[in-house]
Predict the structure.
Amino acid sequence: MEKKNSGTVGVKEIARLANVSIGTVDRVLNNRVGVSEKTKAKILKIIKELDYQPNIFARRLASKKKLRFATLVPQVSEETTYWEAPLQGIKQAANEIKDFGIEVVSYFFDQNNKESFKTSAAKIVAGGFDGVLMAPMFDEESTVFIEECNLQKIPFVFINSDIPGHNNLCYIGPNLYQSGYLSAHIVNYLSPASKKTLIVNISKEIDLHHHLLRKEEGFRNYFEENNGINDISKIDIQQTSYAHIQQKLSEQLSKSSYDVVFVTNSRVSTVAKYFEEHQIKDVKLIGYDFLEDNILHLKNRTIDFLICQKPQEQGYRGVMSLYDHLVLHTSIEKEQFMPIDIITRENYQYYSN
Amino acid sequence: MEKKNSGTVGVKEIARLANVSIGTVDRVLNNRVGVSEKTKAKILKIIKELDYQPNIFARRLASKKKLRFATLVPQVSEETTYWEAPLQGIKQAANEIKDFGIEVVSYFFDQNNKESFKTSAAKIVAGGFDGVLMAPMFDEESTVFIEECNLQKIPFVFINSDIPGHNNLCYIGPNLYQSGYLSAHIVNYLSPASKKTLIVNISKEIDLHHHLLRKEEGFRNYFEENNGINDISKIDIQQTSYAHIQQKLSEQLSKSSYDVVFVTNSRVSTVAKYFEEHQIKDVKLIGYDFLEDNILHLKNRTIDFLICQKPQEQGYRGVMSLYDHLVLHTSIEKEQFMPIDIITRENYQYYSN
DNA sequence: TCATTTTTCGTGTACGTTAACGAATAAATT
DNA sequence: AATTTATTCGTTAACGTACACGAAAAATGA
């Protein structure tokens, strides 16, 4: 009843009701200086009563304000193509909001090189950006970067992995613990009778281990909570070359044999390759991410399950969160956990990242 | 190099280059009448050369044009809550585009009552809408409705099920054939040795059978193409009451026993209920859709697999397609097949519709 | 009290597009 | 040729907000 002219309330109407000019109304709307407390209160009251919603189109048209976002994620390497997907999500979001005067420029770093992270971070700091999206893979370097952002009052979001205890706008990515927990669940499903399981961590930089360790924790806790009688071993491989992985695996597998192998990241295809070359067929293999190499081994039946957590959407929602915060001023969910998708040879054809 | 003032090309610039006024440019942009072929060609050429992109904000601000979309989908009933999800997608989309001057109003019909479809369709026809989204469940009634839309030149999209051979803007939903094919694949996975399989169609209205039949076709073809030696039976149940379903199932199961039962729609929970009440435990059960009842039986281990095809996204993308077509004038993919998600007791907790 | 500074506010133009109105020109009719 | 009718085009005022500029009012200083 009361909203018959809904959407048509503008600064003009507010100004009329408050006996001031639209200029004054504009000042309190954008809380600029130069208006007395009394009239400011009066205008705010009217704005609230009318439930005034500014016309985003007129606003955008009249404003020549431009925002710039920076993104900092690992570059795609021949080691893993995982980061293609988040980058694509970033680009998609960038395309959707470019009409709104937002430019997003992408920076990269080498996962095996902390210096490259620092270099790119420095460029961003110097670039005068209004928002930052980052994959905070290196604890120390990320913290330094974050502090600089805080100093400059630049909001930043984390994707893919989290560093708790910082005032990031939000975290978008997997719930690592849950992810490991689910993996254990699947392992249990694959071989209900408690069998021998091997956890394989493959990563060069020790920092990334926080990431993997959290998964491992979830994995172990599942068995503790359910049937505590599973026999779990673990191996850390800190060189990503095939030769080295091969050697480490051979070493481990000569000591004992396993029913299930759980690789805590996307490097599972390397293990699959090893299995194939060594004619290992009766071991169930679980790993991470919808990558071409992994899918190949899924088809081969060498890999049994892949877990995937919408990497593209992580990138997309990451920059969108910055946009929502900076432009729309909407409140942002602090922790946005991705769904945990299970990919098998039954459904991989229909999966979309 | 050449695009240094990118984004700043407007009608004004075009008009200047063409030695005409902005009014004339506007006329060819909105292809209105009243401009000679010669100047029209000249202006179009310049527009193309400059790769002119109209400023959507200025456009929206200046235009008082409002569009109205109508949606026609089944109402949620106590029989099935499936259609809650598409409706939610519709509402989400409606909310996102309401600022762009688009109102979407929802109409409903009873899946067991063709008259209700006709009634709602008539209201839409009389409503003077600019676009229609519909779930064309009843062939004949839908065709009549469609013809009226064609007459009024109202674009319409199909979701959830298709009626081929009409000039619908697009179809958004499952690839039914593929969906059945995948189900067979899973069945094969559940019991690799060829075993006895029962297909169960449960639906009151015979029209809906086109929908189910296509799934069945995919299902059967899988076995023909792979190992043709599967023993497949089928039962059609045309009353949706539990009593009736119970009777039919008892009848069928007394004649023979089965290893796998494949229910071609979301009514699988009814079969699960029957299984539980009759202590049938060694039969694998596959069905459709992420509904509360179904999930319950998934947890119980009565249902083994559920197939789900993003019902919410169907609704969302359906109205978005109308928007893209009518407002943005982008070209629309004619057939938009949803991914085929497989839900098990391992991953249902993490599924998002 | 008068001059000066500061605070508070109104006016006007711009953003790029739409669309109504009417002017100019061309074509058709008498 | 004069008049009417169509066709083609230019001008202009919106749309609602941002922001620069300057005027008026108030506060401060002498």
Observations:
- The domain at 67-174+311-337 of chain B is CATH 3.40.50.2300 (Rossmann fold).
